[in-house]
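PT: before anyone asks, these are the final sequences, not the draft ones from last week. 476 residues across everything. Please model them as a single complex and drop the result in this thread when it's through.
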Amino acid sequence: MCLGIPGEIVEIPSDRTDLAKVDVSGVRRAVNIDLLDGQPLRPGDWVLIHVGFALSKIDEDEARAALEFLEGIGQAYEDELAALRDSGPEPEG
Amino acid sequence: MMRFVDEYRDADKARALSAAIAGLCEPGRTYTFMEVCGGHTHTIYKHGLEDHLPESVTLVHGPGCPVCVIPMGRVDDAIHIAERPGVIMTSFGDMTRVPGGRGSFLDAAARGADIRMVYSPLDALKIARSNPDRQVVFMAIGFETTTPSTAVTVLRAAAEGLRNFSVMCNHVMIIPAITAILDSPGLRLDGFVGPGHVSTVIGCRPYEFVARDYGRPLVVAGFEPLDILQAIHMLLLQIAEGRSEVENQYARVVPWAGNPRALRAVDEVMEPRPRFEWRGLGSIPRSALRIREKYAAYDAERRFDVPGGRVADPKACQCGEVLKGALKPWECKVFGTACTPETPIGTCMVSSEGACAAYYNFGRFSRRRVREASREAPREAPR
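LR: through. Structure below.
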């Protein structure tokens, strides 16, 4: 919860300004990008995601290191990924 | 050493930092640092970092685990709301097993309450949209990493004019918790390892009072073992040079000014409560947030009557002492015996960010623990 999960931007829908589609360890879903402080996003960029919201943009090295760390913590990360996957394809509205 | 070397890719750097840390420690002096964030606690135990520090450096674990600091009375209040007819209660999965005075969410669900775990507050909003005849409540918990998400969700609900969605706001703030710890009698700290991701939101400026008014250095740090070792090195260097400043070891992620947009969203929707009860730390003024009058329609505490009772922690549970860093997890009387991650008595054993759970899962065989246990053994031996 307090630890952000890195996700790679795979698509910015042209009809929505508040969402971006991300890939998190192979799980794809939309996350809210309202809270990124006006930073332009492109596919291939990485963001730190907290409970469905991207809160900061990070570089790829940092994302890899963070993923490695999260994968190392085991069950807690598995649970969070499962929750992310089960929360549906994308938050509507 | 082996575990660390095997697991961590940059063992040489770690060894160099370990040596540099040892070199900064004055003989005959001890150093006690608190890592505020549960994520750091996790790294420290997972990688056995204490085994790589000189004996004179002690790390104590702080209150930075949002699940751990929720008092039993708030769990009871949430269950009270959940058991009202027509209510769907939602919260993060971490909350399911947190014990209140009348059991946990799991127990309430077994009694028939409709309690659903969600990944994001937006998922709770989605449930509200598809259940227009039900009242959907999101029990919001967390420090500054989750607060902006709750704020945006309330703004979204307001924009849509949803009439069946509300938030039971339990968001807490890290700065008042640090202040309470600095003011608590009998706890001697030489500095802080500041939280990483919380700081992406609040930035580094809010910590300046720690250095200025309390004369303690604080270094915001990342979550990798090397980050934490480097932060400890930076703390020791400040002490050696007679400085107390706020420094940012995690500048690759944490901007000095934080995330102004997230802070604005929070400020629009929420305001500090006069007081909030923290498990273990007691009642701390202006330490948590509530929904502003302007968004009263989305405030579950206004929509439903909540008992608001104060429930004392179980006598055997020493989470309070663990959260203040006064006790190590293994020093608690029920640690690993009556209290385990499967059947937690206290919150510190529930969340993976809790010091007790992290220690239970990873730390039990640390060398330092074994050393301390063998020193304690003669005193504990039966006469």
